[in-house]
Amino acid sequence: MERHRRTVQEFVRSLSVIVDPVQLHGVIAGQLREIFRLERVALAVRDEDAGGYRTVAAREEDGESAELAFAWSEDGRLVRWLRVNETPLVFDESPGVAEYVGSEEVARLTGAGFRAVVPLVAMSRLTGFLLLGGPSGEGLSGETGTARERVRGRRTVPFPSPAELDLLEQLAAQAALACENAALLEAQRARMRRLYRAERLAVAGELAAGAAHEIRNPLTAIRSTIQYLHETLPADHPGRDDASGLLEEVDRINEIVEGLLSFARPREAVFVPLDAAEVLRQSLGLVASRARKQGLEVAAEITDAVPLVGDESLLKQLFLNLLLNAIQAMPEGGTLTVRARALPRTGGRARGAAPASGGALIEIADTGPGIPEEVLDKVFDPFFTTKASGTGLGLSICYGIAERHRGEIEVLSPAPGAGGNRPAPERTRETVQEVAGEPVRQEARRAVQAPRAPVGRGTIVRVRLRGGTR
User: Where does 191-279 show beta strands of DSSP type E?
Assistant: First the structure.
């Protein structure tokens, strides 16, 4: 049909100029809703970190975005059926398949207003799938029928008709290819950013090592001389205070030198099997007192063990640095959120076997003012800092620790979903109690009783660790 051919061409043309995944997902959901005149359309794509699929865009009948937080496991029956069959699933027309998928899953989707699921397959891989609601008016084809009809007033609206189903599969194939290309492009950009950052850090590390050694030798002699003068001067001599001030400044310089050496020549790591979640809990406990003094609410979503081969001391240094950064970003209060879970292992596994851990995913989020976009790419550069005090080496050292654990650090600002004020979550009471004990639990109760928690742009630091080599 000529009309369908033009529809496919226009759809492909509109997607071909979009490379940003977030924008692309919204356009796909919005255009499909308009083409088929549906009440709602949602798009789910693969989540590599979780090893499953999650909704990333949803559009309602009025064209507005909708909040929809659905997730599916890689081994879920719906995902497996879509991967094997690669055909649309209409719940009303396939009761046997719906029964296989599971009554709870079908009830969840139909309860949200969805009547069909369409797989997005690109390069023999299930990239994602579409969730389609019922029609809001006459279908695209204008056909009539009884098997797929829905009555609205006096109008009989078929969905999906054979013609619509054929068009839907053509558009789904193009949407899958666009999503796959956007994901590949984003992954390539991320790899290039990591490569450029690694090169900058390597050059800076060599310079830092040479500078640190050149500074340390004369600095030791300077400090010894000032220390001698300080001890020999009478207690009431006016130069004694000057000598004390000089000693403090020399110690400050020495602290910078130590940071340079830690950044440029880190100690040898000792990798052993450990629980990254437990190391994170311990680190959170160490900063709990400081968080309490600032009136912060702490939400710790740390439940299961997260097995990892790592250096406990280095990991604790990494977590403490990131936690302190988040706390310092909220001097007037806010919410510190800490999450930890295991990453799925890449590659195949035995049928029916539980997914093995492929590393750790750690997220530390704050509700502070966020990081300006123009400096976001510089946060890992040595000596770069937005603080009034500090050496600017903290995140550079953290990045090095993550690399030694075959991982990377990603900084997102503003945090997804940030903006405005939102109520403090009730779950904070119990999660904080598990992490930091009685004092923090009492503080959390006071925070939860407050009507609203201050929220800024926010920042999320996401750490992926695959583990070191023993």
Answer: 272-275
